[in-house]
Amino acid sequence: MRAGLRLIGLALALLVSGCDDDQKKPDPAPAQRAAGPAPGRPNQVERRNFVWRLVPPTEALETVEQALSHRELPSRATLDVASLVAGFVYDVPAPRDAPYDVHTTLLRSPWNESGWLLHVAVRSADGSKLTNLTSDEGVAIEFDPTEVARARPIGGDRVAMSADGKLAQTLYELTPARPWAQRRDARAQIHLGTVQLHWRTASANEPSSLARAIAVTAVDDVEKIDSETRFAIAAAAFGLVLRGDRAVRDFDYSDVEMLAAPPAARDPDGRRARMLAAVRSADHTVSGVPERSRE
Fold first, then answer.
1. pLDDT over 60 at 178, yes or no
2. Domains in the chain, number
3. Residues with Cβ < 8 Å from 282, sequence gap 6 or more?
4. How far apart are CA 65 and CA 72, in angstroms?
């Protein structure tokens, strides 16, 4: 019987020793989780390939105006930056010899002196619309890693079309892989990447495609860009400030107004004046509220 008790005691000792060893071993899971983004959630900052998800616009300006009429700011859930940019009439030239064309502008960010903005607009010919580009790879943008270290789409991959379906545009915040404004020839074009368009028409058996190089000159002052691009940037800035986006933490409603006011002089339907009024109303609303609340 004593022998049996000794065997039981030895087994218990071994069991306790094994538990202690397990407690001393580090859990590999935290190290594995820290090594990279979670599965299925790619690091958005390091992406250099983007595919537009073209969608019809929502009534973003009306949503902002309705909230401000109650002396409130729109919630993040209801504020659609992409549709806010798309909700105005822009004078962008239509292509003459192709069904689609791409327009690009690179400028130093108005709200981040060390960053840059790339404005990309896709315009259809007068006799066609962008709806043929709404496939999975309708509009694809690939940035050159030797020129672009980081890229972030303002408003995400969702890009709203204009009300007539002929124009879609968005902005990318870019971090250069090497300085763009300090090159020997400041007027030389910088090749940032490529825009690929893919579409299919009912009369064609095979899909068609068009590639455009993103060859741009770095503009260091927003005063030097065309008024239509400037207003699109102002509309995006308004949306970002309303959302409390960290990218515009040093940019306020008065800055948005200064950015939007000059191009708002061309206002064929009065909507640009309405946005300026909304900018001023938002400024007054914020000045009367100690702290912004978000749903």
1. yes
2. 1
3. 64, 68, 73, 238, 241, 242, 253
4. 10
Q: What is the pLDDT of residues 221-250, one digit of tens each?
A: 999 999 999 999 999 999 999 999 999 999
Structure tokens at 31: 């190290």
- Answer whether residue 4 is part of any domain: no
Over its C-alpha atoms, the chain yields an Rg (Å, rounded) of 26
Q: Residue 292 domain-assigned?
A: no
Task: Name the amino acid, one letter, at 273.
Answer: A
Model pLDDT, residue 185 = 66
Structural domain includes residue 102? yes
For residue 126, the enclosing domain spans 44-287
Cβ-in-10-Å burial (0-12, 13-18, 19+) of 82 comes to buried
Contact 88, 230 (CB under 8 A): no
What would the DSSP string read from start to end of 200-260? --TT-SS-EEEEEEEEEPEE--GGGS-HHHHHHHHHHHHHHHHHT-GGGTT--HHHHHHHH
Q: Which DSSP helix (H) or strand (E) runs through 168? A: strand 167-176
Q: Which amino acid is at 216?
A: V
Query: Does the predicted model carry a pTM greater than 0.70?
Result: yes
Question: How do residues 197-215 score in pLDDT, each as one tens digit?
Answer: 998 877 777 788 999 999 9
Indicate whether 8 belongs to any domain: no
DSSP-based three-state secondary structure for 185: coil
- Measured in residues, the chain has a length of 295
